[in-house]
Write a structure and sequence with these properties.
The chain contains 23 helices and six strands. The protein is mainly alpha-helical. A hairpin with a 2-residue loop joins strand 3 (479-482) and strand 4.
Length: 583
Amino acid sequence: MNHVNAVTFTIVVILFLLVTCVGFAAARWRRAEDMMHLNEWGLGGRGFGTFVGWFLLGGDLYTAYTFIAVPSAVFLTGAVSGFFAVSYTIMVFPIALIFLPRLWSIARVHNYVTPADFIRGRYGSRGLSLAMAFTGILALMPYIALQLVGIQAVLTVMGVGTSSNNTFIKDLPLFAAFLVLAVFTYVSGLRAPALIAFIKDILVYVMIIVAIFYIPTRLGGFGHIFGVAETHMKTVNPKTGKPTGVFIPTTGNSQLAFATLALGSAAALFIYPHTITGALSTRRRAVVKRNMALLPLYSVVLGLIALLGYMALTDKVTAANVKKAGGNAQLAVPYLFQHMFPSWFTGIAFSAIVIGALVPAAIMAIAAANLFTRNIFKEFVKPDASPRLETKVSQWGSLVIKTGALLFAIELPRTFSINLQLLGGIWVLQVFPALVFGLFTRWFHRWALLAGWAAGMIFGTIAAYKVATPTTSHWAGSTDIEFGHTVYIGLTAVLLNIAISVVLTVILKLTKVPGGADETLPHQYTADGEVAEAPAPAGVGLGAAGAGAVGDLQPLRGAKCASGPTGRGQMRQRPRDAPATGW
């Protein structure tokens, strides 16, 4: 702590304490009749409007690691890899607009809390639902860890704990941040990150707007910044034998690699459980649509954030500090702010990054905990679990998940955590056919989708393991050469997934293997929270094999209607003859 700037450190601590107080106070915000219900603790009462939803989803999607990783990619290799994030975040919202409102509607009518709940109801398959839950939890663990890595980058530049040789002392501030995050998430649930997102976004906007206008005046203007960057990117990298700015991998069709990576990443982003959790917490179907139209504003900010990488490259002091830190480009932006701004504003910027980690980390932990509770614990351990027990299991589950993420961040090398997060995108994309296709058609057979998911997961994991660069032997990226072209592994894996699902569906239909019962009805996919008023015609909503006749729809006892003035609560419906179990 000998080299810590007192002003910067004090401001970070004050703002962190403010956020902590807000996190605990959130339990009283939009106060629920009974907080011990997953609709309240895990989805914020399903009552967020456009304004709150925009901040929540923005805080959910644009994480602390965004402020660290995107500029560091520009710092290292230039615009192609650095601005990749901007291109795919522009693409993601039109894709999500196609399927997300339908998922919101069916989840509201049937009281689905997780995407795996929908898969269970749509296909009547416990196995497929378990696959979705397992994939979501697996993909979120390294994602949460990377938020903690973002906090570590700020702490390192601040000098907190760096003077000690004791590993525990070094990581003590991170333990403290983790403990605070864990406790206020346990108490307030999704309301905490929703309320904190206001503070986070205000700090981020202030930080970026000031930086984008002020820093260039210190560095000779954007003309000089781009000139220095161009010269640097043309310099040959001795490790690769290629110019620094050449897109990696350097073999095959790099343009195709960029395009498929952007498309695959865009398709995967709103499949992540935490983004779906944010969407399901909104009050109306129209809120989801409205936010898909408004959220691209964040992509503009993301483009400005990427420019910080060029500024860090131009600033000789920042570049020297990064080199002194072993070439760790993740420290580029914190070092840039530390050198360019007075201590008080550096404290504000560092607070924005730290708080920017807490919001998505909290939502991710809640989403993963809900998957465990609803689709593993309730499905396989205690089917008669009460809403209070479900909530209690989710609360403790979120603590366990954050503990695992903390161990990821502390014990594993930073590059390994990053590569695991890249794997997360490949893994999550494998539930796309079951989830997204299932929102539009019931043609696919549950066993075929499960086989396709398994094939995509195995192929994607092995292919990612084999990716190597001159400096890394395994897990070096998420693109590989397939059929003479460099493409995104996740996209190749999901195409294999779809192909197997189609072929096996045809075979299973021809052999008349039962396809499972479907508890949903066509009109429910466009509902705005209302429930059916009349019995469904016999035969509607059958599984692919036509097994079982569906009778009248009856609301579950104790369910609340969503048609009230607040839009909160919902009525779940289940076909009378739908089986309660079945793989």
